[in-house]
Design goal:
The complex is a heterodimer. By secondary structure, chain A is an all-beta fold. Helix content of chain A is 0%, strand content 48%. In chain A, strands 2, 4, 5, 6, 9, 10 and 11 form a 7-stranded mixed β-sheet that branches. The chains are: A mainly beta, B mainly beta.
Amino acid sequence: EAGVAQSPRYKIIEKRQSVAFWCNPISGHATLYWYQQILGQGPKLLIQFQNNGVVDDSQLPKDRFSAERLKGVDSTLKIQPAKLEDSAVYLCASSAPDRALNMATFGSGTRLTVV
Amino acid sequence: AQTVTQSQPEMSVQEAETVTLSCTYDTSESDYYLFWYKQPPSRQMILVIRQEAYKQQNATENRFSVNFQKAAKSFSLKISDSQLGDAAMYFCATDWGAQKLVFGQGTRLTINP
């Protein structure tokens, strides 16, 4: 089966600019996650969707970050305006809703550099 | 709150030898899973092995096995017959709530030829 697709792979922007990342999960996976991985750290959950509804966005900096999942499939994560501390890898993952079968599959991420 | 701690920032091992990566965790959940993920330079997080907390038997996947000590909240990964392709960052993680993952800081594993 095809994996989780993410684009772009790399992005360099200046602070205060805006940026958007795209994710296409594995077909049939109802749950979609966005994680932020700062260099030298483990990934941290930003937002979790179940179909097109938000399950948890408690760690999403809502003053500058937004995310949507239209029609319960593809998702976009946006940052506006970007800050230097937003430099990180943004990982998208998806999983089946059955926890017994749950093995979150990750994409290759987008590396964002804010200068 | 769930926390995961990996106390070894870096580890190295000779090719074909055995290495053990440590992980401790804290959770208020009674039903949870534990995972080890591998992250090569390609950045994709690859599931290596997972353990269901209610199962006493340690999980094994080919050369990878875990030592799960529930009372001590310890979940170490043993890699036998290390291969050059095993070199990567390794992350320990636990899930909570609606299948959300909490990760440790990671251990960088180097394989010496």
